[in-house]
Amino acid sequence: SPTGTSPRDSPQPAEEKAQLLQNSEYQERMVESTFLYLTLDLPTAPLYKDEKEQLIIPQVPLFSILAKFNGSTEKEYKTYKENFLKRFQLTRLPPYLIFCIKRFTKNNFFVEKNPTIVNFPITNVDLREYLSEEVQAAHSHTTYDLIANIVHDGKPSEGSYRIHVLHHGTGKWYELQDLQVTDILPQMITLSEAYIQIWKRREEDETNQQGA
Length: 212
Fold this sequence. Notes:
Protein name: ubiquitinyl hydrolase 1
Largest sheet: 8 strands, mixed
GO molecular function: cysteine-type deubiquitinase activity
Low-confidence stretches: 6-11
EC number: 3.4.19.12
Domain USP: 1-202
Number of helices: 4
Pfam family, one: UCH
């Protein structure tokens, strides 16, 4: 479960913020909630081109966007009435985790897609540091392996989807698109525009069969 704290406003001067936090309206509040998936926010993609007039596709490490859940990174939210900050931290790690990489942004006129490539390992992703300190001792297994990766290719309105799936019996990866199934090297999975990922918690007696 993630937890979030949200001051009602976020004035810039430290002295003013400290004074406002004495007011009950601006005091931090902690809320615990369950989740179906974790949304990972991508940094804004640059608009510049390289010397060959080709659009530069930015890249970001998975752990950089996971920092949203480290308990100290603040994210600003705006409504028509107020601005507020939230901090998130995980309090429980389930057997399976779903990441939704936020590639699409909607406005009143159209949908924009962020093409940033997320660099991620497909095995041995340890999420212990994203747990609150008081619950770390209760989690003996905090390492995850990727078992499925959904990719969106192309423009938001004209794109298509592909799925990378791990075959547990052989440890091999396969790519599925409509009725077409082909094998794929694990190294190629990390080059895709990942959209939704499913991770499986590794138990102590499990061995790594993915070979990557």
